[in-house]
UniProtKB/TrEMBL annotation:
<keyword id="KW-0853">WD repeat</keyword>
<dbReference type="GO" id="GO:0006886">
    <property type="term" value="P:intracellular protein transport"/>
</dbReference>
<feature type="repeat" description="WD">
    <location>
        <begin position="47"/>
        <end position="88"/>
    </location>
</feature>
<feature type="domain" description="COPA/B TPR">
    <location>
        <begin position="612"/>
        <end position="765"/>
    </location>
</feature>
<keyword id="KW-0968">Cytoplasmic vesicle</keyword>
<dbReference type="InterPro" id="IPR010714">
    <property type="entry name" value="Coatomer_asu_C"/>
</dbReference>
<keyword id="KW-0333">Golgi apparatus</keyword>
<protein>
    <recommendedName>
        <fullName>Coatomer subunit alpha</fullName>
    </recommendedName>
</protein>
<dbReference type="GO" id="GO:0006891">
    <property type="term" value="P:intra-Golgi vesicle-mediated transport"/>
</dbReference>
<dbReference type="InterPro" id="IPR019775">
    <property type="entry name" value="WD40_repeat_CS"/>
</dbReference>
<dbReference type="Pfam" id="PF00400">
    <property type="entry name" value="WD40"/>
</dbReference>
<dbReference type="GO" id="GO:0005198">
    <property type="term" value="F:structural molecule activity"/>
</dbReference>
<dbReference type="GO" id="GO:0006890">
    <property type="term" value="P:retrograde vesicle-mediated transport, Golgi to endoplasmic reticulum"/>
</dbReference>
<dbReference type="Pfam" id="PF06957">
    <property type="entry name" value="COPI_C"/>
</dbReference>
<feature type="domain" description="Coatomer alpha subunit C-terminal">
    <location>
        <begin position="814"/>
        <end position="1214"/>
    </location>
</feature>
<dbReference type="GO" id="GO:0000139">
    <property type="term" value="C:Golgi membrane"/>
</dbReference>
<dbReference type="InterPro" id="IPR020472">
    <property type="entry name" value="WD40_PAC1"/>
</dbReference>
């Protein structure tokens, strides 16, 4: 059985496959109907209007409808698109067992415990016939696929076949009187439109299920007598053909397989059985441990079955449908209908090579699984699962006729594959070795498997093999018996080599790993839908095309992927060359189709930086859509993305990102929102284009920024106008700032005097030499005249040296894509900024608040004010931009140097922190705060003091530092794991980390040695050091995660044991406490050699303390560990002495017979059944009073804290 999908739910009583979509309906005993997508493994919808169990459910063949029947006596017809019940059919008087739509007519047949079968017209919503005759519950009823028959099964021990041809004739040509009579008969006698054709008797108990064969005149039934019976019928009679015995409880359901000559049944004996129709024998049995089976359903077109049981359902296949095939040098070799065939991919010529016979192949799933071709000797190896794994070696004839029935050379073993001109390898699982054989099928060499768990071999070049185990693939040199490479992978199913054998794709169920020929990892793709096959594009090096159940997709060398085409049925890719794709379907038919390769060719050109190709494709093809725009933005090409976009807001964002001020100005004009003008100003300022900055500030009426801009650009004329505008707006602070920027002392004194700040006005006048004004103000101030310090300075800004247009911009060569798409004219038009338009935009009437201030001033000021009133604006005719703003850039020839903004990339450290939840990688990136939050959440760590030096070391070690000039800071470079020269510029790997599992294992060995030598303080530091490093560790596989967790447990035990021993050595005066601590030490889970040493110490202390009974227990435990002869002799002497006087002088808090753990803080036993609290990191046990304190074993985490657990590998996150 190949399980494709499984659910966990209430008991499933009804199932139905959708004819075209990958959907299945499941009706539950709880009253809910579930709609599942079995391909995606997701619940699409649920319908729960029935009261009580729903026992029958069925999809309509062509309409978006399904019907259900339940224990509430109701038949409901639903529309799954509208997600509601359309109507309810009432008439049955007891539980409804099954419901089914007719293939052709608008009929529904239903079977009920009221002993009747009813046929309903779902269009007129009426019952058109009632079939009576059964005298017990009718358990099922169903239409024949083609004939006018209904078959029913009942607990009255019979199967009945009903002829409904009269009903069909009446439906095709109805007459009113016939309908009226029919309705009367229906109500009174059960109707005459359906008559019993046959009554099949033979079961000894109630019959639970009966079903027609889709094409042959056969019926199969299953009953409570535990038997499955097969019946044949003709026009005049029906008879029992055979009985299939094997079930040990009631048979719940039985059906014919839609595409094979087999019968499938399930039973309350918790099994599904498969029977051979021709041999009438059982072929296979599948059992569940706790769940009884209730229902079976078969897909009408595909090789899929579903079974409902007590705790859910399973969708499964009985046999693999993937044809065995291999490709070599433009030739496809594959097995179809017991023939080995070849297909020339160039000329499209198919040839039958050899007839394949499989004697003794009984059972399912024993067809060919793989084909290996040897071009040198024209030989073929075909592997299968017969006898637990076997192979057949054929020699292909030079002039094949297809009738060649040569006897192959056979052998037992799995994964037979050629590795040289005259050698092939096969796995002998029994002896855990690889056997090399010659073409005579003689063993020439044997070598042990590089890893014991290897279960499959794949070709990897002459003399080399790819060996698959559960979590890795190994590159193995058979001659040298050496491992050349290794890569961690999910369970690999298929291997596809590129034409040049430089790259390999490893295909697992839900992932694709691309690696080099030395198994160096390049990229990994994860899929939610099952991956079925793949092939390398021969026209575009590095592109891998693969098929899932419902898509053809591509994978680029940098790991980018996308969809090329949607599939109706799964296909197995054979060859891809440009836009032509050749594949096999499940029937072994060869298909050739055209695919649109534009998208991945475009991305590939970008990756390889073939920008001329990129420009050509943009001009010629129909590339568009949000996906392409997002991709270009993500990869750092917003300037290209700009040419795909029509939406002004998106254009503005991309123009700002790529630094294209011309397009940004044009888009900002169209959008005309304050936020966009502000962002344009920020970008223009970053580029130093202060004329556009000025335009943006005017558009947003940002007077303060505008004044400061005029100050730093030395534009005094416009600063004076800003002063007059501030005066008209009655903006005191604006006037003062502008006068300060201008160095206008008189204006400043006037403003301060007008606003009542006489002391400041006096100070300004006196310091700057305006004595007349200062004297006048001193009279008004009287005694409040301020005193100035001697070193007071003048507040005068420096005079601008030169003011001439824009600042110098960064001059770089024009960008590759500037003007490539015919947008020269647009830029000129977009940057043709009209000064008059600026003036009309910001009117003084908009910004004056309240009545105009009575501005005192000279005649010039009065004149200016009059002008303003006349214009009603800023008099912006003086704020003219140079006529060549933007135009100079666009009209310049293509070779002119122009400004292209250098793009700021995302710091590698930021990428590291965004991509992972592993604390070690956050520390490497320098994000100590997020690392501490992660450790607190995952392990409950609160005391970070011991980790501070580790944080610093890890961060420093993950970066290289390049010294520059003395005046320039050091340049840090992030060090990435697995980096190579072929890595893409935008590809970011995980950080290279200082702490590795192998380092900790070395430290552990050292700590063991130091402990054995009795250097307990030093050993304690080593074990604590390991405990402190583990939270920052990052490993690659689940196996290593388990090793890390085991390491935490080891270190915890040793830290606790060593703390106990050191505590004992400090308690020199208290002999009783010394004995207790020595006793506790012996119960720590440490290595045998250390347990022996601790027992010797405890034995000696107890004996000296005259606790002979306790000492004797230590002696016995020591002797059980088989110590060296000298220690054993001493232990026996002590034991003999203790047994002469079996008593304890002192009462110890120690009971060796009651299991206990030692509290890490109080060093007292916590006996089994007593309450305790645990450290969230190291799992050390404590008495409840210690909860909330820092763990004294690991010195990091809070005792009793809630934590999610140790996270040290990306595999845990997936």
């Amino acid at each position: 059985m190949l399980t494709k999908f499984e659910t966990k739910s209430n008991r499933v009583k009804g199932l139905s496959f959708h004819t075209r979509r990958p959907w299945i309906l499941a009706s539950l005993h709880s009253g809910v109907i579930q709609l599942w997508d079995y391909r995606m493994g997701t619940l699409i919808d649920r319908f729960d209007e029935h009261e009580g169990p729903v026992r029958g459910v069925h999809f309509h063949k062509s309409q978006p409808l399904f019907v259900s029947g339940g224990d509430d006596y109701k038949i409901k017809v639903w529309n799954y698109k509208m997600r509601r019940c359309l109507f309810t059919l009432l008439g049955h008087l007891d539980y409804i067992r099954t419901v089914q739509f007719h293939q052709e007519y608008p009929w529904i047949v239903s079977a009920s415990d009221d002993q009747t079968i009813r046929i309903w017209n779902w269009q007129s919503r009426t019952c058109i016939s009632v079939l009576t005759g059964h005298n017990h519950y009718v358990m099922c009823a169903s239409f024949h696929v083609k004939e006018d028959y209904v078959v029913s099964a009942s607990l009255d021990q019979t199967v009945r076949v009903w002829d409904i041809s009269a009903l069909r004739k009446k439906t095709v040509a109805p007459a009113e009187d016939i309908l009226r009579l029919s309705q009367m008969n229906t109500d009174l006698f059960g109707g005459g439109d359906a008559v019993v054709k046959y009554v099949l008797e033979g079961h000894d108990r109630g019959v639970n299920w009966a079903a027609f064969h889709p094409t042959l005149p056969l019926i199969v039934s299953g009953a409570d007598d535990r038997q499955v019976k097969m019946w044949r019928m003709n026009d005049t009679k029906a008879w029992e053909v055979d009985t299939l015995r094997g079930h040990v409880n009631n048979v719940s359901c039985v059906i014919f397989h839609a595409r094979q000559d087999i019968i499938v049944s399930n039973s309350e004996d918790k099994s599904i059985r498969v029977w051979d129709m021709s041999k009438r024998t059982g072929v296979q049995t599948f059992r569940r441990e706790h769940d009884r089976f209730w229902i079976l359903a078969a897909h009408p077109d595909m090789n899929l079955l579903a079974a409902g049981h007590d705790s859910g359902m399973i969708v499964f296949k009985l046999e693999r449908e993937r044809p065995a095939y291999t490709v070599y040098a433009g030739m496809l070799y594959y097995v179809k209908e017991r023939h080995l065939r070849s297909y020339d991919l160039g000329s499209s010529r198919e040839t039958s090579l050899i007839s394949i016979r499989r004697p003794g192949a009984t059972g399912m799933n024993q067809g060919p699984r793989s084909v290996s071709y040897n071009p040198a000797e024209n030989a073929v190896l075909i592997s299968s699962d017969v006898d637990g794994g076997s192979y057949e070696l054929y020699t292909v004839p030079k002039d094949p006729t297809g009738r060649d029935t040569q006897e192959p050379k056979r052998g037992v073993g799995s994964s037979a594959v050629f590795i040289a001109r005259n050698r092939f390898a096969v796995i002998d699982r029994g002896a855990s070795q690889i056997i090399l054989k010659n073409l005579k099928n003689e063993t020439t060499k044997k070598c042990p498997l590089p890893v014991a768990t290897i279960d499959a071999l794949f070709y990897a070049g002459t003399g080399n093999l790819l060996c698959r185990s559960e979590d890795r693939v190994i590159l193995f040199d058979v001659q040298q018996r050496t491992i050349l490479g290794e890569i961690q992978t999910p369970y690999v199913k298929y291997v596809v080599w590129s034409m040049d054998m430089e790259n390999v794709a490893l295909l697992s169920k839900h992932a694709i790993i691309i690696a080099t020929k030395k198994l160096e990892h390049k990229c990994t793709l994860h899929e939610t839908i099952r991956v079925k096959s793949g092939a390398w594009d021969e026209s575009n090096v590095g592109v891998f095309i693969y098929a899932t159940l419902n898509h053809i997709k591509y994978c680029l060398p940098n790991g980018d992927s996308g969809i090329i085409k949607t599939l109706d049925v799964p296909l197995y890719l054979v060859k891809v060359s440009g836009s032509s794709l050749c594949c096999l379907d499940r029937d072994g038919k060869i298909r050739t189709m055209q695919i649109d390769s534009t998208e991945y060719m475009f991305k590939l050109a970008l990756i390889k930086k073939k920008f001329d190709e990129v420009i050509r494709m943009i001009k010629s093809s129909q590339l568009c859509g949000q996906a392409i725009i997002a991709y270009l933005q993500q990869k750092g090409y917003p300037d290209i993305a700009l040419h795909f976009v029509k939406d002004e807001r998106t254009r503005f964002n991309l123009a700002i990102e790529s630094g294209n001020i011309a397009i940004a100005v044009a888009s900002a004009k169209e959008i005309n929102e304050k936020d966009h003008w502000y962002r344009l100003g920020v970008e223009a300022l970053r580029q130093g284009n202060h004329e556009i900055v000025e335009y943006s500030y005017q558009k947003t009426k940002n007077f303060e920024r505008l004044s400061f801009l005029y100050l730093i650009t030395g534009n005094l004329e416009k600063l004076k106008k800003m002063l007059r505008i501030a005066e008209m707006r009655n903006d005191i602070m604006g006037r003062y700032h502008n006068s300060l920027y201008l160095g206008d002392i008189e204006e400043r004194i006037k403003i301060l005097e007008e606003s009542g700040h006489l002391a400041l006005a006096y100070a300004t006048a006196a310091i700057h030499g305006f004595d007349d004004v200062a004297n006048r103000l001193s009279v008004e101030l009287g005694d409040n005249v301020p005193v100035f310090p001697e070193n007071s300075e003048l507040l005068l800004p420096p005079a601008p040296v030169v003011h001439d247009g824009n600042w110098p911009l960064l001059l770089v060569t024009k960008g590759l894509f500037e003007g490539a798409f015919g947008d020269h004219g647009t830029a000129v038009e977009e940057e043709d900024v009209d000064a008059q338009a600026w003036g009309e935009e910001v009117e003084i009437s908009d910004v004056i608040e309240g009545p105009r201030a009575d501005v005192r001033g000279n005649d010039d000021n009065e004149e200016a004010r009059g002008d303003d009133e006349e214009e009603g604006g800023w008099e912006m005719e003086d704020l003219e931009l140079p006529a060549d703003v933007g135009a100079s850039e666009s009209l310049a020839p293509a070779t002119t140097a122009t400004f292209v903004v250098p793009l700021q990339g995302v710091p590698v450290s930021q990428v590291w922190t965004q991509r992972t939840s592993l604390a070690g990688e956050h520390v490497a990136a320098g994000a100590f705060d997020t690392a501490m939050r992660l450790l607190n959440r995952q392990l409950g760590i609160q005391n970070f003091s011991p980790l501070k030096p580790l944080f610093e070391d890890l961060h420093m070690a993950s970066h290289a530092y390049l010294p520059a000039f003395t005046s320039v800071p050091v340049v840090p470079l992030a060090l990435e794991k697995g980096w190579s020269e072929s890595s893409g510029l935008n590809m970011r790997n995980s950080p290279a980390l200082l702490y590795k599992l192998t380092l900790l294992e070395e430290k552990l060995k050292l700590a063991y040695r130091v402990t054995t030598e009795g250097k307990f303080t030093e050993a304690l530091k080593l074990f604590l050091g390991i405990l402190h490093m583990i939270p920052l560790l990052v490993v690659n596989s689940r196996k290593e995660v388990d090793e890390v967790k085991e390491l935490v447990g080891i270190c915890k035990e040793y830290v606790l044991a060593l703390r106990i021993e050191l505590k004992r050595k400090d308690m020199k005066e208290d002999l009783v406490r010394q004995q207790e601590l020595a006793a506790y030490f012996t119960h720590c889970n440490i290595q045998s050699v250390h347990v022996k040493l601790s027992l010797q110490s405890a034995m000696a202390l107890a004996y000296k303390g005259k606790n002979f009974n306790t000492a004797s227990t230590f002696c016995r435990r020591l002797l059980e560990l088989n110590p060296n002869p000298q220690t054993a002799a001493k232990a026996r002497q002590v034991l003999a002495a203790c047994e002469k006087n079996p008593r304890d002088e002192n009462q110890l808090n120690y009971d060796p017979r009651n299991p206990f753990t030692v509290c890490g803080a109080t060093f007292t036993p916590i006996y089994k059944g007593s309450k305790d609290v645990t450290c969230s990191y190291c799992a050390a046990k404590y008495v409840p009073e210690i909860a909330g304190r820092i763990c004294s074993v690991c010195d990091l985490a809070v005792v009793g804290a809630d934590a999610s657990g140790l996270l040290c590998s990306a595999t845990q996150i997936r």
